[in-house]
Request: fold
Amino acid sequence: MKEKFIELFKEVLENEDKEVNMDDQFRDYDEWDSLTYLSVIAMLDDEFDVIIETEDFKKIRTVGDLLAEVEKRTA
Amino acid sequence: MALQDIRNVKISGIAACVPKNIERNADSSLFLSSQDAEKFIQNTGIAEKRVVGNDVCTSDLCYHSAEKLIAELGWNKEDIDCLIFITQTPDYVVPATSCILQGRLGLSKECHAFDITLGCSAWVYGLSIVGALLSSGSFKKGLLLVGETTTKTKSVKDKSTYPLFGDAGSATAMEFSEGSKGIQVHAGTDGTKYEAIYIPDGGFRNPVSDISLDMVTVEEGITRNRLQYIMDGAAVFTFTISTVPKSITKLMEQFNIDKESVDYLLLHQANKLIVDKISGKLKFDSEKVPTSYERFGNTSCSSIPLTIVTTIREQMESKKLDLIACGFGGGLSWATAHFETENIVCPELIEI
Reply:
């Protein structure tokens, strides 16, 4: 799942060459803005059938946290 | 369950009105660059919208819609038993704008008139309310007037709201019609999330005070005061993609509505992202989901009647159509309705 998740995450960032690490605080990415956030929500719903409510999303800091949340909800 | 089966009513006509003044997002100074504006337009689909002047209110847009519709229907104004006006931008705090509209339209003094405050779910809620008022047959004819001058509540310096919204008003004529299948409705509310779309000051929880007009920069590109609209776009998006498809599915299941028999799915025109997501989840072909956000933006409660008038008007006037409409937004509030129309009166878009 990790590989698929990272590939999709790069697609959402519209930067296929981006180096994405688990410890990255994704909100600090240059590519990140409010539309990227919406695209991530849509991608997680489309690809993993996961909808993360805003209150829960606010607590997620890193790419690894987000992946863990998706894994938890799809387990 | 909030499901209703409202028999013996029909929709007889739908009209919509917009201001002539066009604002194009490509020209907006809110975006840092032309690429920024292009990305916004590509994602939201909203290229331009209509904006009223200071002297135009929602009631004016609804008044022109109603006058044209009544004339084309050939209705006698004395026969209109009820007028329901739904908006978040009334003429005054007091009195109800529906009363002003009754007077201005010259309707009978024995007209049952009142206002309702709702946002993007309003038109569908209105069908349910006017439908319920008419279905017993005591009232024979009703007018549902819904509209919003959304741009008056937004800060022109707020890129998270201003570029998305446009102004429009509408009028929908409904009638008691014995034997008609009427309108089936599913509605819902989640008031725990009211702050996702709200204006903090100006009501009676936080009356206007000396800080209400202070312009505060929340982040780059978002400067507004406490009398202006705040929208948590991500919260609204999350709510929409999880709740709206369920509401539509529930209505279809409950009333055995076959997807293939539905001619059009009329969604509130929030933006491209949301419309595509909902129609995709429900597996409705895009040809069955007409859109108006490209030219008019999110026109709040008028977006469904405006879409009807600007995209399927000729079919509304010449055919029998099986329709599902769904409105969703501030409250949070949502409503889905199923109904048939046959050769209704649908005047061309009115521009003032």
Summary: Residues 233-254 of chain B form the longest helix (22 residues).
